[in-house]
Amino acid sequence: MNPTACNDEHQRIIIHIDLDCFYAQVEILKNPELKNIPMGIQQKNIVVTSNYKAREFGIRKCMLLNEAMQLCPHLVLVNGEDLSDYRSISYKVTSLLQKYSEYVERLGLDENFIDATKLVEEKLKNINKEQIQSIGNIFGSTENLCQCGCEIKVKVGTLIAAEMRKLIYEQLGLTSCAGIAHNKLLSKIICSKHKPNQQTFIYPDSALELMLSLSSVESVPGVGRVTSEILKQVNVKSIEELQNVEISKLNKLFDPEKAKFLKNLSYGVDNTLVKRSGKPLSIGLEDSCKLISAEKEVKEKLTELLKRLMLLVDKDGRIPKTIKLTVRTFDKMTKTSRRQTKQSNINSQFFTSSGPLIKLHNLEKILLILMNLFRKLVTIHRPFHITLLGLSFTKFIERMDIRHSIASFIKNDIEVQSITSIENLNYDDSSPESAAQSPSSCRESSDPESEPTPKRTKLNIFKRNLMEYDTCDSPSKLRVQDLQLSSEKHDNNLNIKCPPNADKSVFEELPLEVQQELWFEFKRTRMDSTAFGNRQKKLKSNSLLNYFVKQ
Ligand code: TTP
Ligand code: MG
């Protein structure tokens, strides 16, 4: 539970940091000559962002290329369709902020919320309150301020935000803006009031004034296009109208919680917590394309996407366990598009060697999986038309966990060979990937969840149990539960059993050969230790059982 959970009060301090012209800044870091000339980042026929020099000519975000070139004919364009550098710098920024607080929530690639409540409290212990001077621009009046102590907290928040921005600049060379307020909503809105390279703060008393300064409900963070369309049904377009509409009317359109949430937003009240963000849950790429109608072309496109994706995964450092294929087909008869996704497990062994690129033979094996998935999604003996292909890796494990994972037992290729027997999940993919690259659809969405903390895997328990056995006084002291394997695939003649104290469910997941080896290894060590009375006797150096025990 976030320690600074609060109700409707002004006890928290939330800082929102948004990097200035993010993609452009990254490109300038790579090529400083771009700094003082108008420069835009191009994705397909859109200028997704530009440096502030270009903005002086009226270039705006997501402007059509033609329009931008008319406004600024000497605009220098940099292709920004490969997001890997943006993504990696984005994570560096988040990591820097995580040095201050564990409560850092990423939003898109260049925004972070930080719950600075604790930091403020700490700073207040060592500072003379009388001497605190806020840093940055203020929104609203300073007359008749609330006396609950929030004023001083916001002031200290501005000092911390300035420190954070300074660190980002010193360490990464990036300028940013910050908003400081007592909740996420206000901190985000206020952040963009003065740009670039500035910060703005607001006292709780000015929340209402800030909300009423917004042009429509659509400009409230948290109110999407769909919600604002629904609100129009009850003639709610402005913030004032949202404040005045009866909650009973909203309850008819939304579930009561959402209705209350919307009402609260209109008054600048937002009790949502800063969630802890980790690495993305999935890493993906997708490319819309001109009609593809031949399997060979699909394979070529997937090869290209896979090579690019492998570079991203390599940079991320974790190992994926699942690959997902997204296909958008176009029906020429009905003139409609359909987006479908299918996924499959993949062998973690493909990724165990580190290096910039996956080995070619592994790439081909993954392609084989992908083409299998493709044939399950598209009936290839009938004419088909593909307008988008996407790939993503999900279910990541940390590289250091790989040796403890079941996958590390499985011999190379086993999953490729058994592709038809692997359970493939098929579902409609209506939501975008958490880190999908989609130049045509503009920006990345936020990482929705925090990184899972490393869990004690079943295999670790298995390993520990084996070690416990190895250090037992004598086999007779063991809680021996020689479990007969139930699975039909096991050859009963061999009488393979799960070694005592090992986790049966894990053992049963292992391939038969591995089970055999473990069981015989176990029997051999038992005989050895009984015969020699030496429980510390070393296992054969190349044995599978030794694989665990050594660690
Ligand atoms: P923003 O923070 O909205 O824009 P910005 O950082 O370029 O500029 P500002 O100084 O106003 O903050 O978005 C961050 C990056 O996301 C931006 O550099 C490019 C990308 N982006 C898209 O790809 N599509 C979009 O529609 C927008 C708005 C941004
Ligand atoms: Mg930005």
Q: At the first level of CATH, what is the class of the largest domain?
A: Alpha Beta
Count of DSSP helices?
A: 19
Assign the structural class, choosing from mainly alpha, mainly beta, alpha/beta, alpha+beta, or little secondary structure. Answer: alpha+beta
List of distinct ligands in this structure:
thymidine-5'-triphosphate, magnesium ion
Our Rg estimate from Cα atoms comes to 29 Å
**Strand content bin:** 15-25%
How many domains, as an integer?
A: 4
Largest sheet: 6 strands, mixed
Average of the residue pLDDT scores: 78
Poorly predicted ranges? 1-7, 402-493, 530-551
Give the name of the CATH architecture of the largest domain: 2-Layer Sandwich
Features:
551 residues, alpha+beta, Alpha-Beta Plaits, DNA polymerase, domain 1, Dna Ligase, domain 1, six-stranded mixed sheet, globular, disordered N terminus, disordered C terminus, binds thymidine-5'-triphosphate, binds magnesium ion
Walk me through what this model shows.
With 551 residues, the chain is an alpha+beta fold. It folds into four domains: 3-209, 2-Layer Sandwich (Alpha-Beta Plaits); 214-266, Orthogonal Bundle (DNA polymerase, domain 1), CATH 1.10.150; 282-399, Dna Ligase, domain 1; 407-549, no CATH class. 37% of the residues lie in helices and 18% in strands. The chain contains 19 helices and 18 strands. The strands form four sheets. A six-stranded mixed sheet has the order 6-7-1-9-10-8. A hairpin with a 2-residue loop joins strand 2 (39-43) and strand 3. Helix 5 crosses helix 6 (150-172) and helix 11 crosses helix 12. It is globular and about 80 Å long. The model is unreliable at 1-7, 402-493 and 530-551 (pLDDT under 50). It binds thymidine-5'-triphosphate (TTP) and magnesium ion.
